[in-house]
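SECTION: protein entry
WANTED: fold as tokens:
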Amino acid sequence: MIRAGVIALLLATSTSAMAADCRLALILAMDVSSSVDPAEDRLQRQGLAQALRAPDVIEAFFAADAPVALAAYEWSGQEKQAILLDWTMIRTPPDLARAADVVSASKRAHSEYPTAMGHALIFGAAMLARAPRCLSQTIDMAGDGQSNDGFGPAAAYRAPAFAGITVNGLVVNAADFEGELGLIAFYQSEVLHGPGAFMVIADGFDDFERAMRIKLIQEVSPAAIGGLQVEGFEYFWQKEAGRGASFWISRMMRAGVLASVLIVFAGGGWANCRQALALALDVSGSVDAREYRQQIGGVAQALNTPPVRARLLAMPEAPIRLMVFEWSGPLDQTVLVPWTEITSAAALDIVIDTLDQTTRRPATPGTALGVAMSEGVRHLSQQSDCWKRTLDISGDGKSNLGPRPRSVKPRLESSGVTINALVIGVDDPNIGNIRQAEIAELSSYFRAEVIMGPDAFVRTAIGFADYARAMREKLLKELEGLVFSQGPAPIQQGQ
């Protein structure tokens, strides 16, 4: 359990935070392309309005003193975007009620155009450029299909405007089964953007209100830390106050404040490291020589990108500890980079150079995923003085040798280790749409069988050529955190 002894070390954005008008600028984007019929549009529009009126959403909006700035627009074709709700500062419940009424009364502007998602994202970024000054910016992108007009999300994200924007997704799962799988994978790999980005899946437009309500609560809720002030933000302990340190650390990391935390426990000093991170790379027989090189080089490339370097080096006095190992068969786990404290740029450069110079070793071609999970947790058990321990396991297939993940996972859950996954889909262009379905199936397998711990997640790469991008985004999410100052003792459950 985290005690009250908490000390702030650094908040890089403290000056701008004090000047901010709000904690979050949130813009809601609704798909009104031709695949959305009039009845579905009504369900979507009224579902959003009802979600904004839901008591638990209202509670989340006003859980902190600093307000949320809210806007909404609809989108379809390249030049077919229309504002439903312009920027509105949500300071009081009546403000939120009026915003819900505006959305509810809005009329559809377009109905016969394709799905130009990249153009819709650019429109959202332009609206955020004139939003009130807030500590963070989020686009909430709802849709029932993949982009099929103009440029896609990847091209949009190359625009400098997206550097500080998070894009979350609401997938309206309204098509046939294979189409649904492809859509989920598309959102995972193409739409989600920024550290902490996530998606919620609605089972058709009838389920839109429920999914939007869940999504809004997660987006607007402040960090669940009792009585703490972070540059004017009052954070609080939720009813789950007894869940323990690992739960609260994960909630804090999800808060999106742009710094790192260091925790002091009662009777103790600073933690020796803020996170131990083990990267486990799949080198089974399905990974050929070219793909092996793309994977190893992708890790090195991701570690060397400026935003990842910045997060790794943000707090050298409480460093990240990093190690890398590869795995395949039951007896084929090889450490490539031993535990290394990233206390300086030079230390990080040594890790990157080691990976760049790594050559493939002979190994059993099978996929002993359960053994790899156990081996990763064993390595992380050596880092018990770190306040968070994470296994980042990559894989392009299901386990086929040794104990299955579902058999291993119950025994590992008490370790306190979080296991995240990076799923690599096949990259054969001849497979076409089947590729998306296979990625979605493999993602579901890793989500059900492999990942564990508070806020554990799965990232996808569309082939090994996409591995560096996926690993970069994964590392940024894993390394996000906050700095906070000492506050009063937490409120206990029932008080």
